[in-house]
Amino acid sequence: MLRRLFALFFAIFGASCAQEWSLWAPRAEIQPQGEQREGALILRGAGNAAAVGGWQRTHPGIRPGQWYRLTATYEPRAGIALPQRQVVARIDWRSAEGRRAGQPEYAWQERREGAARHLTLLAQAPPQAAAATVQLWLVEAADGVLHWRDISFAEAEPPAPRKARIATLRLRPKGEDPLARFIELAHKAPAGADLILLPEGATVVGTGRTYADVAEPVPGPSTLRLGELARAKKAWVVAGVYEKEGGAVYNTAVLIDREGRYAGKYRKVYIPREELEGGITAGNDYPVFDTDFGRVGMMICWDVQYADPARALALRGAELILMPIWGGNQVLGRARAIENHVFLASSGYDYPSAIIDPDGETLTSQETDGTIAVAEIDLEKRYADRWLGHMRGRFFREVRLDAPVLPEP
Q: Tens of pLDDT along 77-93?
């Protein structure tokens, strides 16, 4: 009851107690131009390539441990090539003495509606927080024109846990029908598993056959068999197969939903020389998929050797990366989870069947043939560094996608 009364007081009086909007920049010579007009907070780079800063407003009466929601809508009117980096909405928590309390929180969840882009941040006030400064910035956009509208900052309920139980198989079958062995083992996964992960090449391992020998359409015979498993276990299923389309053979991971329906596929982008010599064609996209527990992406084996597959999946909203793998560098697997702030699950032969959290910690791991590694993850759990803050938000707002990767010809 007291919490509801305080929330009502904050909703009525908190905004009026807040300071007015004012312009701020680290240094006067790099402050963007700003004006308030027709309900919008406007920022312009005004030809200054170093312009950084924008509008800010301080809200007093913050309670440590209480959750708050910041929402803001922006429209990039001109000269903003990379909104993900050049447009920033964040909360800078302050103590009663005016010092920084905890670390700033960045709004990173974004929804587009025509030209408007709606940012949302749900964050918990850290210990010693007594005020919150909402900051709306334009960053290094010399010709940028940015309109901010509909800014709201208020108390909110904490997020409900969003848990998923992941089961990943460890098996290296031998014989003519390895997929049958995988399905047999998968039926032993604990009841209530939300997703079952099989390794790379689940239709070829141990058979002595070539990629082309086992290649098939997707969807096709193997996705039908995996669909029967998914229906029986009431779980999503991911498995590595070889896909035939025209003259091409792809190393593919398929996604099957709980009803046994084919839900999508990922074609391995990074092809090692051994597969290239075996006639495998490379994929060229990093799709992500919405499940009933969260957003997932897939990558396969050699993809872990390179930074961009996991980064692309994370930037597209993947919260969990599913990695069928033959063998590879385990340190790089942990690194991909850490640097992109995602969960990563692997199922392999010469690589552990494991589940890694966004801090790179191993939640479960199996390297014994015929076993299943199982862990429950919470996709709403926050992984914050004491010195750096909540890294998922910083990742989305600080990653550089504009700097050239290849040297100029």
A: 999 999 999 999 999 99
CB neighbour list of residue 83: distance below 8 Å, 6 or more residues apart: 74, 76, 117
The rounded radius of gyration (Å) of the Cα atoms in the chain is: 24
Residue 160: CB atoms within 10 Å: 7
Dig out the tokens for 58 from the structure.
Answer: 């301080």
Cis bond before residue 76 (omega within 30° of 0): no
Decide: 195 and 237 in contact? Cβ < 8 Å.
yes
Sorted by sequence, the CB contacts under 8 Å of residue 288 that are 6+ apart come out as 295, 296, 297, 313, 316, 317, 318
Q: Which residues of 235-248 are buried (b: 16+ CB within 10 A; e: fewer)?
A: bbbbbbbbbbeeee
pLDDT of residue 7: 44
pLDDT 10s digits, 336-346: 999 999 999 99
Residue with tokens 């996705």, as numbered in its chain = 223
Confidence at 10, pLDDT banded by 50, 70, 90: very low
Q: Please tell me the distance from the alpha carbon of residue 269 to that of residue 287, in angstroms, as a whole number.
A: 11
| β-bridge partners, 92 | 133
CB 42 within 8 A of CB 36: yes
pLDDT at 14: 45
What pLDDT, on the 0 to 100 scale, is given for residue 17?
A: 60
Question: In this structure, which amino acid lies at residue 157?
Answer: E
Which domains are present in the chain?
2-158 (2.60.120.260), 163-381 (3.60.110.10)
Residues 288 and 298 sit within 8 Å (Cβ to Cβ): no
Mean pLDDT over residues 152-166, rounded? 97
Helix axes 221-233, 178-186, angle to 10 degrees: 10
Report yes or no: 105 and 121 within 8 Å, Cβ to Cβ: yes
Supply the mean pLDDT for the chain: 94
**pLDDT value at position 123?**
96
Please say if the pLDDT value at position 74 is more than 60. Answer: yes
